[in-house]
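Loading example: each entry is read as two labelled lines plus one structure line.
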Amino acid sequence: MKANCWEGKKKVRVETVPDPRILNDGDAILKITSTAICGSDLHLYNGLIPSMEKGDVLGHEFMGEVVEIGRGVKKLKVGDRVVVPFPIACGQCVMCHEKLFSLCENSNPNAYMAEGLWGHSPSGIFGYSHILGGFAGGQAEFVRVPFADVGPIKVPASLRDEQVLFLSDIFPTGYMAAEFCEIKPGKVIAVWGAGPVGQFAIASARLLGAERVIAIDRFDYRLNMARDKAGATHVINYEDENVHEALRELTGGRGPDACIDAVGAEAHSHGVSYAYDRTKQALMLETERPIALREAIRACRNGGIVSVVGVYGGLIDKFPMGSLLNRGLTMRGGQCHVHRYLEPLLGHIERGEIDPSFVITHRMRLDQAPEAYEMFVKKQDNCEKVVLSA
Amino acid sequence: MEARKDDQIRNTEGTLGARSLEHISSSALTAPPRLASQTRQPARARQARRVANPWARGLGWFSIGLGAAELLAPSELARLIGLRDSSRTRGVLRALGAREVAAGVGLLLPKRPGRYLWSRVAGDIVDLALLGGAMAFDRRTDSDRAGIALAAVAGVTALDTWASLRRQDEPDDDSAALARATNGKRAKPQDPSVPVRAVITIHRPATEIYAFWRDFTNLARFMTHVRSVEVKDRLRSRWHASLSGVEELQWDAVITEDRPDHLIAWRSVADATFDHVGEVRFLPAPGGRGTEVHLKMNVLPPAGKLGKAVGKLVHRLPEQVITTDLRRLKQLLETGQIMKSDASIHKGPHPARPAADDEQLTD
């Protein structure tokens, strides 16, 4: 089959690789109909996440048709059309019972690697490094899906791929970010990053009843999408405005009730702090550039919530702990527990309350993946979200 | 509750310690030899090394650059970081510079960068102390600049520590592996046995886990290197382990204590090539969340002909491998299967992509 493979920093290539097969009784094999490139794939592309191997198949946002099932699969049948959550979860361990699916205790065969880096291991993730299991991803014609009775959700024929594909990651991830904020009517939420996850965080904050939602980014095309499609009430372009001052202005001096970091490890900025983090990163003195996170912490109102869904992999520097402690902030984060959001969010889509396809700017073929990555990383042609079809 | 558990654990240590001294001379054995770990270990270590090397290298060049600045331009550097530019300051900075360059060169050498990473951590602590001292006791220190320098060094310290801890995943040699396997403590000369322990919580009742373990033939299902176990009678069993590339190992084991649903203890029988004592204990997890499985073994590196090779392997017996085996047991009991990924089914490093039909897989 054809698959998009990681070949090294800033290099991906569509190669012919063996077809996947059943390895565990609970597996299913999917023929992929649509797959997407995630902003977090760009961290892999840029070489920020350790433990990649040359030849790894990328991709953790995908859907398709079941073409084969293992002996232990009960709920899925050949021919079912399903969307697959990006974290792999067994459904049996204590974490899964507590609905903390991205922290499944049984799905990462390389847990010892993650324990070395992070202390304990989260779940395995499709196409996302060997620390997270060494699973082939879904930017391919076929994919093996472990625990097929636990993760995949069947989707009705009445909905197009583009409407349901993002249930695999970015819609639930944005939704969880908003849910962390304990939104009630009247709340003000600021969202750093108007990439696809930021767009869904904004849309979800509105769904949950936030009164004002402020989008922060450096690209006007993304801010326009946030305002016109996702429902942001205000936008801030940090190339033009001082974010902290602008947020004070928009919140009567108090700061947003909750701040969402939908940026993660490769934040951009201008001036001294960007140069500082860029330099430290180049010298390998820190692994991430937590510029958005620092700004979100400082901007948040006293007693507010900082919700982190942007991806980080290692260590950060100059974390404003004093601000967090003295002002009583709560910080929450995590890889999304996608499984618990599938049904409710599919419900929102079926009822027409949201059409997630609004983020798509480019539709390409799988074999165009290399140019798609390059376009996405360079933000060329107003690229927001690329969907690849096999 | 807490206290009782502590007692139980302390108890365990007592039992094991005594038993290990007593039995090891007589010998023999049984337990799930972790030996098989070997096959997997070197491959994984290589994999980890490929990941970690750029860090050691980056820090190495950083050390050399900083050291050169301290050696060649101590006055300028002193002013930059807010210290009084005196002959004493310059002397100290030059000494620190020499240390930095040495550490940097060490990090760039192909062997044992781990050792030099830790030397960087030690050096960072010296730097922090000197800078802090200058700020606290020398009024001529520019405290703004020194403060920035202090923060920078603290950041570097964190990174060095992190890089050093990461490095520990890669054995540099037998002594490093032994140190890790023994939790940093080398066995005392009078007791050459190597303690190894691992623990995991399994979301199943103790009765079920005990019963599964008590049928030793099951252990070959999750202990990668145990090929098979023959149960001879109520207490005795014969074990076959495969150390790929080395000899096949066999030994007999005898149960020394058996408390249903709570504990199984065993030791190898005289002349065993894998000479050890071990015990596995099943304790209720807090909040009714399953059962804690505590595995402890004391392994005596053998002497004699085969001894050297086996001893080498035993010394490499890392807790990580035993822990991974317990995790496989957990997967088996909780999900009915041992979790496989596209990479994990291969003996060595392999990209996360499906295997071709003719590729040789583990298991």
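Residues 37-72 of chain B form the longest helix (36 residues).
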